[in-house]
Amino acid sequence: MENNDNDKFVSLLADSTFKYMFKDYREFFKKAIKSTINVDISEYELYNNEINSGNKARDYRLDILLKKDNDFIIIEMNKNADKRTLLKARKYLYAVAGGGLVEGEDFKKMHTILINFNNSKYKNDKEAISVGYDLRNEKYNDVIDEIKIYDIYLESLENVRYNGSNEKETYLAMFRAESFEEMRNIANGNKEALKVVEELERLSENDEFRVLYDAEKMRRKEINSARLDGYDDGYGNGYEIGITKGKEEEKIAIAKNFLKNGVSPDIVSESTGLNEDEINNLLDELNS
């Protein structure tokens, strides 16, 4: 497979990639997370990833939510890790943590962990790979252990290559790679890392996966544009206006891109919400 076409590249720093890879390549994610922050995801399962709207086909935020008994782990892939992104993730953490109080049931103690993969550097220490947070009372040093936050900073892993003893750094560096070639250079012979690259290359040719992956990319661009457009008027207002204004254009742009690349009309319709007539009109437009 030719890897010089970046349009085909599939990044690990995407929610859709994590969910597709989690079943068969859990060991990779387990090692990357456990060696970095000492959190073991072995016994967790993917849980209700469309918690925001319930719309499986068209909810592009695609939260990664893992569950084991009464405990949850939220994983956020933050390619653009600004203050608003991290604040939004924390608000989601508190919402999930509050889910232990269910009407009509006895309260069950639960632990909720938020793990942010940030494509950035920690402001207080540019070399830091991970930073953990507890809810702590300053006067009495009392800790609420039901909630924890871990930020993993990927930009501190520049120029990493596997050397036989830096497996943790190697796995994390692969998350920020921008091409399959770069991933193979980082892996540098590490068998497990190379298996992940091979699977990502296969995924890049999977029409069903490309629909979700490209839609997530488009959604991220839309959100970033809305933030920029609404900066002077306030983030919240600008975000909502941007999302409303761009919704239909986004659907059409995604549909055209998929149709150009040979994705079947049925998959395009299911993923974008465009009906058969709208898809046929786009096909006529592309063929004219």
The best one-word shape is: globular
* Helix percentage range: 40-55%
- Radius of gyration, in angstroms, nearest whole number: 20 Å
Average pLDDT over all residues: 80
**What ranges have pLDDT less than 50 throughout 5 or more consecutive residues?**
49-61, 231-245
- Within the largest sheet, what's the order of strands? 1-2-3-4-6-5
Number of helices: 10
Q: Profile the largest sheet.
A: 6 strands, mixed
SSE string, helix = H, strand = E? HHEEEHEEEHHHHHHH
How many structurally independent domains? Answer: 2
Alpha-carbon distance between the two ends: 31 Å
How large is the share of residues in beta strands?
A: 5-15%
Q: How many E-type strands?
A: 6
Which secondary-structure class do the elements indicate? alpha/beta
